[in-house]
Design brief:
Blueprint: H1 3-39, H2 41-67, H3 69-108, E1 115-120, E2 126-129, E3 144-151, E4 154-164, E5 170-176, H4 178-228, H5 244-294, H6 298-330, E6 338-341, H7 342-359, E7 363-367, E8 373-376, H8 378-395, E9 401-409, E10 413-419, H9 452-462, E11 466-471, E12 476-483
Parallel strand pairs: 7-9
Antiparallel strand pairs: 1-2, 1-5, 3-4, 4-5, 6-8, 9-10, 10-12, 11-12
Helix pairs in contact: 2-3, 2-4, 5-6, 6-9, 7-8, 8-9
Length: about 500
């Protein structure tokens, strides 16, 4: 083959490959809706609905058949057996002559003209009865046969039973079941048509189920797309019917509300960190710059550096508090939970803070039981109570009274109460008081980071308890409720704690 011929073949091969690829792509695109239709959950549920409906209809049809056509067959067999029993008794009493007379009498008294009898000799020749000849198919004794018969020029169906008599004689007893056969055919046709109707209705129901799923899930999908696009205000529509879809929508909406609150919290924390860290960092920078410009000796420089270190330590403490709160909320310390006695722990805190209150001119009252069982992390509970006591001492004026009380709950829990006589927290601010970096108007000029109550709330939630803030008239009454039984966690957290096990330092609010 010449080079020119080869060059002419290559474009043809390339064009053929491109055309085949384009053809396959078109076929794949045409089949894509079919694959999507088959993979649809609504279609699967619809098919399941149709299958259940079809099986139910089939079961009903079989029951109707058994209770009608089957009942007719059973009645026919019962009548034949009863007739045969009577003929057998008559034959036993009077022999062949009595049997023939009985057959003639029964044929004469058969008003419905449905009784069939045939008495034949050993050669199957007719002796008596209303059948013309012995059916060729009937050969076995005590067997049931369904036969096509002809009487008086009319064809029909018969159900007969063959009996052997002494001397080689044969007796055939049956019933004309043509009318019942026609009824059975009508019933069969009706059941078949009802099956077709059931199939149509099942298909309509399947499409309705699929449409219901598509409408419901379409709203959920649209909401999810809107959320992923940044619209955190979208929610799944609730129809108000209080069905399973409404409960699913409410659960999803609760989850979205929780996510929105967390996102708001992240934004607030970011803003709070930016504001709260800017002041100490700027103060440390200003002091270092002032020392670099105006310091006259080593002592001035050292004093400036120490003041800057104090400011930076405050920044580090804020970050440590944030990390500790995040760790507590993640449940990383749950593996250290054990049964503990809070009585000695609270007594130690009483001894420590009573001395601090006395130095500040405050009265510290404690009512603590000798033993108070609980379940949890001793260090975290100690830090939470220390935070509440720090706040009480910090916000209470000289001469005021601070109370520390603890008591058990017979239903399985314990409560720790810290009350002061300071300015308290207004009712409208108590909901936000446990948020990170939240500081009320009365606490603006008081040292602190606004993380103390946030940490107490995190400890309470980790222990399956609550933190309640009430008015003490005047002041604030904080009640930390804990459980005395091991809680059942929603998920087993295996993460080990990254914090050290040193005694926890309290954080002021």
């Amino acid at each position: 083959m010449t080079a020119a011929a080869q060059a002419g073949i290559r474009p043809k091969i390339t064009t053929s490959l491109v055309l085949n690829a384009a053809r396959r792509l078109r076929v794949w695109r045409r089949r894509a809706p079919q694959r999507e239709f088959i993979r649809s959950a609504g279609v699967r549920f619809g098919i399941l609905h149709a299958a259940v409906f079809a099986l139910s209809t089939l079961a009903l049809a079989l029951f109707l058949w058994w209770s009608t056509a089957g009942l007719l067959d059973r009645q026919t067999e019962t009548a034949i057996n009863a007739d045969t029993q009577g003929l057998s008794e008559r034959y036993g009493e009077g022999g062949m002559m009595a049997l023939q007379e009985t057959l003639d009498q029964r044929l004469a008294g058969n008003i419905d003209d449905d009784a069939l009898y045939l008495l034949a000799d050993p050669l199957y020749q007719k002796l008596s009865g209303n059948l013309e000849r012995w059916p060729a198919r009937v050969t076995m004794d005590t067997a049931w046969y369904d036969l096509a018969i002809e009487r008086a020029g009319r064809r029909g169906m018969a159900r007969v039973h063959h009996f052997e008599l002494p001397g080689g004689f044969h007796l055939l007893v049956g019933r004309d079941v043509e009318v019942r056969s026609q009824m059975a055919h009508l019933l069969t046709d009706a059941l078949l048509w009802s099956g077709v109707v059931a199939l149509v209705l099942g298909s309509i129901g399947a499409m309705a189920v699929r449409s219901l799923f598509r409408i419901t899930l379409a709203d959920v999908s649209a909401t999810a797309r809107a959320i992923s696009a940044g619209d955190l205000t979208r929610r799944v529509r609730v129809s108000g019917r209080r069905d399973e879809f409404d409960r699913l929508a409410e659960t999803i909406n609760d989850m979205l509300d929780r996510i929105a609150r967390l996102m708001d919290g992240v934004r607030q924390v970011s803003n709070a960190i930016a504001h709260d860290l800017r002041t100490p960092i700027a103060r440390a920078r200003a002091r270092l710059e002032d020392a670099a410009t105006h310091a006259t000796g080593e002592a001035d420089l050292r004093a400036a550096i120490e003041r800057a270190e104090t400011d930076l330590d405050g920044v580090i403490n804020i970050f440590q508090a944030l990390l500790r709160i995040a760790e507590i909320e993640a449940g990383a310390r749950r593996s250290a939970f054990a049964r503990i006695d809070l009585g000695p722990l609270l007594s130690d805190l009483d001894e420590l803070y009573a001395a601090v209150a006395e130095e500040s001119g405050q009265t510290f009252l404690a009512r603590i039981p000798a033993s108070l069982p609980a379940y949890g992390d001793r260090d975290m509970i100690q830090q939470a109570v220390a935070n509440l006591l720090d706040n009480a001492l910090k916000f209470s004026p000289s001469g005021s009274q601070i109370r520390l009380e603890a008591y058990g709950d017979p239903r399985g829990g314990c409560s720790i109460l810290v009350a002061d006589q300071g300015p308290g927290i207004p009712a409208e601010d108590r909901v936000r008081a446990t948020e990170r970096f939240f500081r009320g108007e009365s606490a603006r000029n008081t040292p602190g980071s606004g993380l103390g109550l946030a940490l107490v709330q995190a400890v309470a939630m980790l222990h399956g308890g609550t933190l309640r803030l009430d008015d003490n008239h005047p002041g604030l009454c904080a009640t930390l409720t804990l459980t005395t039984l091991p809680p059942v966690p929603a998920a087993q957290v295996n993460t080990s704690s990254s914090l050290d096990q040193r005694p926890a330092a309290s954080l002021g609010a």
